[in-house]
Amino acid sequence: MAFKHKILLPPFLKRVVFRSISLGKKIVYPFTISAFQRDFQIPFSKPITILVGDNATGKSTLLEYIAYACGFNLQGGSGDHTYQTQNQEQFPHLTRLQPCMTLSWLPKISQGFFFRSETFFNFLEYLNSPEIGDGDEWYEKNYGGRLLEKSHGESFIKLFGVRFNRKGLYLLDEPESALSPMRQLQFLKVLKNIEDRQDSQVIMVTHSPILMSYPGADIFSFSPQGIVPVTLVDCEHYQFMRRFLEKPDFYINQVLEEELLPYNKVN
Q1: Percent composition of the chain: helix, strand, coil (DSSP 3-state, to 5)
Q2: Which residues of the chain have pLDDT under 70?
Q3: Which of 5, 168, 192, 242 could staple 111 via S-S, CB 3.0–4.6 A?
Q4: pTM, 2 dp
């Protein structure tokens, strides 16, 4: 009797667990970040997971650690993008996290892409170097063309739509940074195409309420009080943007004349 192999569907990364360690009186980065001052675990049950929260709450650091564990280029890219220096001395905060972090996989995969908006231009320069690629057809097939010749936002969309069309784990740090609101809506279609393929997982850090609205995604909110699952309407970014659009003059006057109130203090 022949047995069929069970096809394992995403998410492949099932859980991230952080166990804090005693540092005594010496507190060093990244343990100065609120997320890494207490134990936490994040279960991944959907192909699309979204991490939200204010600046400096640990979202990008966690995403960077996952990329580090996968062997992705930490300047952005996959494991086979060998630009910049990849020695561990560049990233001591990640080696400090290693004894505290456990990643659970089924199955473990190493293919995918780490997108970080802050270093994206470095990646484009790498792709444009003479030793990379094999003519216009190669660039069109793998990246939707020569990205350095496109606008900032268009290069984002081309990369997402073309390079992310294969099985893998896609780690996205603020993919909205160069996208107009209409392009952000277009990016939701990219996420839908990835989910429909049933061969990839996306973990995304974003400040965009539009991207947070992707249907069916799990959302985890990072704050000084901890990391908790939330719905879209409970996200502080969503609440703040809704209130701002209802009465922009109030918020503009508040920030120009006084001090911007915390989200939860504004009615």
Answers
A1: 45, 20, 40
A2: 1-6, 22-26, 85-89, 258-267
A3: 168
A4: 0.90
> Is residue 8 one of the residues assigned to a domain?
no
Which is nearest to 113 in space by CA: 44, 45, 190? 190
Long-range contacts of 160-164 (CB under 8 A, 24+ apart): 160/115, 160/187, 160/190, 161/190, 161/193, 163/113, 164/113, 164/190, 164/194, 164/200
Count of CB atoms within 10 A of residue 5's CB? 5
DSSP bridge pairs for 114 = 77, 171
| Co-location of 196 and 266 in the same domain | no
In this predicted model, what pLDDT tens digit does every residue of 95-120 receive, in sequence order? 999 999 999 999 999 899 999 998 88
Q: Is the same domain home to 259 and 194?
A: no
In a domain, 154, yes or no: yes
The reported pLDDT for the residue numbered 267 is 47
Is position 2 within any domain? no
Query: Which two three-digit tokens encode residue 190?
Result: 């990219």
- Tokens at residue 139, please? 């660039």
Q: Does 123 lie in the same domain as 178? A: yes
152: CATH: 3.40.50.300
Please tell me whether residues 172 and 246 are part of one structural domain.
no
258 and 214 in a common domain? no
pLDDT per residue over 202-239, tens digit each? Answer: 999 999 999 999 999 999 999 999 999 999 999 999 99
The pLDDT of residue 67 is: 96
> Domain of 89?
13-232
The token duo for 255 is 């920030």
**pLDDT recorded at residue 254:** 83
Residue 142 pLDDT: 87
Whether residue 54 lies inside any domain: the answer is yes
Q: Which residues contact 141 (CB under 8 A, 6 or more apart)?
A: 162
